[in-house]
């Protein structure tokens, strides 16, 4: 090792003996920064990562390594020093590894000088260091392979220029063999084989942030192959002009065996998928515990079938192997419960017919264009998850995310694990919903019936009481001993009646004006400390009662398909820019059953698990009563409302908006101020701008900072609440401040989910159009003292009804009824005009102070600003549903998104500052190296003078 270090030191120092060394390093670094900031458009991408640097690294490294290695052996041959080296006591292996170590150290130095780039990016946004570390590790391994190739090519000739050309050609072939331009000529199976031979494909695999043993060994095998060939070449130079003998043949045989073994080891390691390290934030490329959680619930075999065409769009083709690898992970993690198949319908007519008839899968048409041709290609890119008689189809839109600006497109996998696991959860829940909910419930379930004696019940309920016993007996047989029943009569037990009033708000009911006798008729289910109230069905018959009990059992059982009742404005196609929520419906429908709710009858669907109220307007007293009573039953309510509504059409116009919820929210300690929040940390808004060019006025769309779009990230998203802990970023448009009255909130847990920055302010101005001439910084005049405002709040705990002590709005408005209202006691079940006065501890209320939140027009505006479909508002709602319905596994899986977020909006001068800073730091590094080398030369000179003096 001492001799190898001495040779490496000599080669390393010799590289800096000429100015060419600094020219090579300077050119490499300048090209790297030029690629990042200009070619890839770093600030135009608006993403906190350095992927453009590593995307171009395999190509840039070819020329850097070729320039470093071209003189290694060729100069020795040209100057005649090679004979001295080969006849010296130093073994040729040590000579090769000495030069190899020196070249690798030079590349490491060049990469070290690029470190200012990721460091400065980390100050701009939340940088995921896993892909960065992977990128540098991949660059070193790639450089090692190229160096081995370059050293071998340099040993083949005594001309440095020829060695340079040979190295570029061979390394270029290893790079080009896996490029889409070549693999597109074949099917994806042949293309997958070609990519496995390519240095670029393995490089891109590591730069994801995953250190895979197969990728690392690929580069090591290239090093081993070309080092062996290099040794054989040096030996042949030593044999020059000597007759052939057995030792020569032995060298060739050993070298050939070494090369074959290096290649064979790649084939042996191909099925070894577990030997890898996922360094990404949240381990994005490792099957999560959430996915394994749902795989453990499988009771029957699950089929995952991938429909992929042999020839597909060039941008999609590299993603097919990644999807296949992920799907195979499910098969491994399931313990043989999951069967994975891959089918090309265009090569199998029977499979194509089955895909179309059974799953409704048809090929997608993609336009392809190159410099010489253009055309339309039809191909398949679908995944089917089938479980029992249930199935879910994932298409191109579910798996792929397209980002782009102008002519540049970046096609990546969106979050395939979440899509696949959600589909598994979906079919599993649908299948379970068709069976017995008791199979998914741990422990015993106790049915509590708090009812008066049959002769004290009204006539309709007397018959229902007898039918209840029949339903419970049938369920008891289905439950296999898990269902216990218990009936109590609170009418004859004052202590029980008092306990029920305190715990649930239950009180005696009355049938109506004609029947004034009080009675009790309440039903609950209990399992492990969880309580679910069973509401009386609207139709008092046996079938409706059975459905009501089964719906309560499904709410108690984990894993059943949940129902979201959506209250949202209906699309008004006559009014452009109006609020519509078709994108939200489509997104939620992937994992939940979404029903449109009409609150005009004063009731919420019995099977609803979550009530989502978006931009309500002038809610009636009955509608308000329906929301209130759903909350009192222990349900979860999410409301998105604001005192202002903004119409997005040809111009931005704001007008006052009356939701009818003000008094109701104030009762629970929440007040929305009649102002809107403006935040200097904001997202961009596409606005038309006029520009004068040569006397001609041109109108173009530019992305300009818009303070009414607060860009929330970091501590602005509550880290203590699961809804926002993993969200990463959220843009909340046209939001108002929320004031919380802790006295009215009482002992309920209050979480401020969303907060504006400390530099934000609020305004009651109705003018939403920015004036960048008068206020160039933000477009609006700052009002008042800057402060942070709560924009979304969640309350959890026991609520007291807004209608407590008041007559039910469902009793009509005639004078006789009003008289009865004044004297009637409150009841608990609103089927009989009663009021539930208290909610259990499981009730949750989420308030988002924005009317346009998650509307189609807002999502389109924000997507246009990012050049990709913006899903964060829908992710926020989905997280709220999962949190409210206590589905931690899926909520954790949704958090496994990429950490790279959009950067905080930067003005042009700020972008130039960061760019010049990187160039300055690189230049400083080169200057330090020059000073170090100059100091080394001075010390060497002094040492030589000392040696001469001693002589």
Write up this protein:
- By secondary structure, the chain is of the alpha+beta class.
- Helices cover 45% and strands 18% of the residues.
- It is built from 33 helices and 30 strands.
- The protein has a seven-stranded mixed sheet with strand order 16-15-17-18-30-29-27, with helices on both faces.
- α24 links the parallel β15 and β16.
- α4 crosses α13 and α16 (289-295) crosses α32 (888-894).
- It is elongated.
- It comes from Shewanella yunxiaonensis.
- Residues 562-879 form the ABC-type uncharacterised transport system domain.
Fold topology:
Blueprint: H1 2-15, H2 20-39, H3 42-45, H4 51-69, H5 74-79, H6 82-86, H7 92-112, H8 116-124, H9 129-155, H10 160-176, H11 180-183, H12 188-196, H13 199-207, E1 210-212, H14 213-239, H15 246-269, E2 276-278, H16 289-295, E3 302-308, H17 319-333, E4 338-343, H18 349-357, E5 364-369, E6 374-379, E7 381-387, E8 390-394, H19 396-399, E9 400-405, E10 408-413, H20 416-433, E11 445-451, H21 459-479, E12 483-488, H22 494-503, E13 521-527, E14 530-534, H23 542-556, E15 563-567, H24 582-588, E16 593-596, E17 610-614, H25 621-632, E18 636-640, E19 644-648, E20 652-656, H26 662-667, E21 670-672, E22 676-678, E23 682-693, E24 696-713, H27 722-725, E25 729-731, E26 738-740, H28 742-745, E27 749-755, E28 761-763, E29 790-796, H29 815-823, E30 844-848, H30 856-866, H31 872-884, H32 888-894, H33 908-950
Parallel strand pairs: 3-4, 11-12, 15-16, 15-17, 17-18, 18-30
Antiparallel strand pairs: 1-2, 3-7, 5-6, 7-8, 9-10, 11-13, 13-14, 19-20, 21-26, 22-28, 23-24, 24-25, 27-29, 29-30
